[in-house]
Amino acid sequence: MESVIRKCVFPVAGYGTRFLPATKAMAKEILPILDKPLVQYGVEEALEAGMSDIGFVTGRGKRAIEDHFDINYELEDQIAGTGKEAALAGIRELIERCTFSYTRQIVMRGLGDAILKARTLVGDQPFGVVLADDLCFGNGTGVLAQMARLYAEHRVSIVAIEEVPREDTSSYGVIAGEPLGNGLYRVTDMVEKPRPEEAPSNLAIIGRYILTPDIFGILEHTPPGRNGELQITDALREQARQGRVLAYRFDGLRFDCGSVPGYVAATNYCFERFHRAAR
Question: Does residue 103 sit in helix, strand or coil?
């Protein structure tokens, strides 16, 4: 199995109901943090980790994502030679350095189903997964790049985790694991959205994964779980039984931009870090 990961999957088919009515006609992944959409931050993180083959699992109403990662000839002609042209430098670099592929999740049946739909884009290779509404900033190195280094050493699936208040475990997949040092755990069990009194820990999985390609075969034979959805947690639990899943307490910050408070916190953080620093 390859040690270098080139492919990264972005499941972006969700409806974004927590941001209605803003997301009624607009993909939640296009919501801007300052002047850049959430999904662009995610693709930049993937590229930093060496993952330049980007696959989107889309759904109805997500055309804006495809358009964002394409050239807009009319716009670029209008601003050519002006100061506004510099604002497109970042997205132009992504368009030049990455390839973008798309497939559809027709019915929303959970994250596991979305990842299974990406099989035609990934093939028989290890791959990253980024949930764009989890906005992450690594300390010095991006979260996905930190995980890619670990994958090159261990060659197993890796999930990013962070500590959450015990009362919030019902919003996450939660791990039980054996500490290995340096923020790394060998996962022994995973529970999807447990009640606080049933949670095996307060170490919650967030929206960064590196998965080995055998996950597809496991997902094909995994029955629907909570809410009738195909849960990636259930498939990872099968890998964990064989000792083939690590959890990593990443070095950095994560904002839940799928929620209004998290989105506001991320905006304030980026304003202080990027906008004020540039003045």
Answer: strand
Q: Is-contact 229 206, C-beta < 8 A? A: no
The whole-angstrom separation of Cα 215 and Cα 256 is: 26
Note down the domain range covering 20.
Answer: 7-278
* C-beta atoms surrounding 97 within 10 Å: 10
**Helix extents (H) in the chain:** 38-48, 63-68, 73-79, 89-97, 111-117, 119-122, 143-154, 215-220, 232-241, 260-270, 276-278
DSSP-derived 3-state class of residue 201: coil
Q: Is 132 a member of any domain?
A: yes
Neighbours of 66 (CB within 10 A): 13
Relative orientation angle of helices 38-48 and 143-154, to the nearest 10 degrees: 40
Read off the DSSP letter of residue 242: T
179 beta partners: 185
Mean pLDDT, contiguous 10-residue spans, the chain (279 residues): 85 88 89 94 97 95 91 85 85 96 90 95 96 94 96 96 93 92 93 89 95 96 83 92 94 94 95 71
Structure tokens at 11: 């499941």
33 domain residue, yes or no: yes
CA distance linking residue 268 with residue 266, whole number of Å: 5
228, part of any domain = yes
Total domains in the chain come to 1
Query: Per the domain annotation, does 185 fall within a domain?
Result: yes
Phi/psi of residue 102, each to 5°? Answer: -140, 140
Closest CA to 207 of 63, 14, 31: 14
Query: 254, 146 in Cβ contact below 8 A?
Result: no
Q: What CATH number does residue 156 fall under? A: 3.90.550.10
